[in-house]
């Protein structure tokens, strides 16, 4: 009787409703609350007096914010292009059935097992002008060797690009390799029969048919760029000066260090809008392709 009653009263759909209710309250509710805070003069504690878009005006006239946006563009373009190029090249090598392919994949996938904090600290030690690569080479006798990009305001941003590519290229390799392994073998037979060079076959035949795979890689890398905080904190802490400042670090600093809740919320909403604008072409193309 009890088992029968339990079967009659259990509603699986209520579990789903409960889950979406939690998501709506804590996720979307937080976004709405942050959006409202960006329209107030909240500092350490929330202030619910509406002041309009004053915080956004302060944000987009803030030199530090403008520099962080410029840094994000520089880092994002170089990081996405470099990671895609390097990861695709590794995937092509692995797709040729090279020897010790499993070892090859493991070596380049290993950075993914390490957090961005550990990655940043490792590269910080390697690029340290005193104890890193520069100190090692000078200790071998080349006293004039210089590699001080980490402390050079004009080049520090490129050290983040190097570390980011090293960390993420393995993931792109795996995704692209999965797409390459899904190519029909009859297509490869036709390519060999036509005598098409291998590089041309990849560029003009194989990769154009893998646009959804490449688009997914770009979306993943774009999310890394917008959320770029761990790597910056571990490697440069935004320095020298604000040479490697990023929007995510700007928002966190104003939330906790400068206790300016209103301006930090405005920065967070600006990052959210930017993310939606960058992802809009991808979702539009997916919608058109399905319809």
TrEMBL record:
GO terms for biological process: transmembrane transport. It is found in: Cell membrane. The chain crosses the membrane at residues 16-36, 65-94, 106-126, 156-180, 201-222, 263-284. GO terms for cellular component: plasma membrane. The keyword Membrane applies. The keyword Transport applies. Keywords: Cell membrane, Membrane, Transmembrane, Transmembrane helix, Transport. InterPro entries: ABC_transporter_permease, MetI-like, MetI-like_sf. PROSITE patterns: ABC_TM1. Residues 69-282 form the ABC transmembrane type-1 domain. Its main location: membrane. It is a multi-pass membrane protein. Pfam families: BPD_transp_1. Belongs to the binding-protein-dependent transport system permease family. This is Sugar ABC transporter permease. It comes from Mesorhizobium mediterraneum.
């Amino acid at each position: 009787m009890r088992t029968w009653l339990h079967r009659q009263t259990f509603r699986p759909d209520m579990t789903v409703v409960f889950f979406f209710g939690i998501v709506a309250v804590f996720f979307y509710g937080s976004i709405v609350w942050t959006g409202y805070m960006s329209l107030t003069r909240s500092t350490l504690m929330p202030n619910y007096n509406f002041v309009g878009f004053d915080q956004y005006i302060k944000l987009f006239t803030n030199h530090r914010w403008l520099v962080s946006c410029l840094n994000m563009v520089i880092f994002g373009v170089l990081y996405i292009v470099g990671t895609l190029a390097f990861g695709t090249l590794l995937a092509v090598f692995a797709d040729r059935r090279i020897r010790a392919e499993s070892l090859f994949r493991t070596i380049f996938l290993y950075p993914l097992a390490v957090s961005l904090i550990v990655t940043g600290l490792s590269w910080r030690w390697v690029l340290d002008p005193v104890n890193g690569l520069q100190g090692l080479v000078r200790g071998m006798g080349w006293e004039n060797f210089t590699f001080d990009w980490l402390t050079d305001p004009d080049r520090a941003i490129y050290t983040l690009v190097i570390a980011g590519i090293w960390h993420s290229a393995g993931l792109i390799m795996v995704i692209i390799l999965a797409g390459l392994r899904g190519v029909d073998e009859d297509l490869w037979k036709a390519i060999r029969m036509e005598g098409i060079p291998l590089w041309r076959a990849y560029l003009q035949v194989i990769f154009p048919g893998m646009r959804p795979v490449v688009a997914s890689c770009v979306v993943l890398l774009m999310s890394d760029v917008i959320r770029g905080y761990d790597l910056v904190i571990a490697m440069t802490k935004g320095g020298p000066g604000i040479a490697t400042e990023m929007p995510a670090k700007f928002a966190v600093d104003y939330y906790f260090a400068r206790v300016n809740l209103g301006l930090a919320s405005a920065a967070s909403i600006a990052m959210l809008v930017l993310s939606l604008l960058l992802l809009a072409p991808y979702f539009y193309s997916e919608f058109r392709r399905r319809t």
